[in-house]
Amino acid sequence: MPDPSLADPQHVFRFHVAFREERLQGTNQPIANLCSGAFSQCSGLEASMEPKVIREGGRNYGAVQRVGPVSFATVVFKRGITSSRDLWRWFEMTSQNGAYSYRLSATISLRDSSDQEQLRWRLDNALPIKFKAADLNAKSADVGIEELQIAHEGLTLLSSPSPSPART
After folding, report:
1. Can you say whether the dihedral through the CA atoms of 90, 105, 19, 72 is positive or negative?
2. Within a 10 A sphere around the Cβ of 5, how many other Cβ atoms?
3. What is the pLDDT of residue 70?
4. pLDDT tens digits for 61-109?
5. 87 contact partners, CB below 8 Å, separation of at least 6
6. How far from the centroid of its chain's Cα atoms is residue 83's Cα?
7. 158 Cβ partners below 8 Å, 6+ apart?
8. 33, CA 20 to 30 Å: which among 1, 107, 114, 140?
C-alpha cells in the first residue's frame, strides 16, 4: 500500500493569475482587482540566495557559508492577445507616472483537474518592466502572443488550502 504521506507531483498546466492593487498603509479604500485575463505561460517563479563565503584562518577544508541576500527572478506572463488593454494600461500608468500606487500584488494559484487550488504564490509590489505586443505577420496563422515581464520585491508560498476529502 502506498505511503499516504508522500505527495503526488502536481500538473502545471492549470493555473490562475490575479493582480490586485496594494494600497499604502493608512488608506481606507478597498483593494480592487485591476488586471484580468487567462495566461498560457508563467515563468520565473524563483528566488535565490547568494551565500556569504567566509574564509577562516586555519580552516583548510572549505570555507564557512553564511546566509546572504535573496534576489528574485523576473516573472514572465504570456497570453494570447485579446481586446483587453488592462495589462498595457498598467504598464503605461507605471512607466509614465512612475507612481508607487500602481504596484500590484500578483497571486498565482496552481489548480488540479477538479479546479481545486493546490498551491498559491504571491508576488509583492509587482512592477511591470516590459510589455511586448504580438508579432504581426500576414503569412502566419498562429495566435498572437503578448508578453508582460514584471519585477517584484518578494515571493511567498502561501499556506496550502485545506485538503479535499479523500476519493474512494
Report:
1. positive
2. 5
3. 96
4. 889 999 999 999 999 988 877 777 888 888 888 887 665 557 788 888 8
5. 35, 37, 128, 131, 146, 148
6. 23
7. 107, 120, 121, 122
8. 114
* pLDDT above 90 as % of the chain: 23
Name the domain count of the chain: 1
Cα–Cα distance, 53 to 68 (Å, whole number): 9
In a domain, 167, yes or no: no
CA atoms within 13 A on the CB side of 50: 4
Burial class (CB in 10 A: 0-12, 13-18, 19+), 80: middle
Across 32-46, 100-114, 139-153, least confident range: 32-46
Would you state the cell numbers that stand for residue 41, as one nine-digit string?
A: 505561460
Residues in contact with 132: Cβ distance below 8 Å, sequence separation at least 6, in sequence order: 146, 147, 148, 149
Write the pLDDT tens digit of every residue in 17-28: 888 776 555 555
Q: Which domain holds residue 133?
A: 15-157
Torsion angles phi and psi, residue 42, rounded to 5 = -135, 120
Q: What is the CATH number of the domain that holds 96?
A: 2.30.110
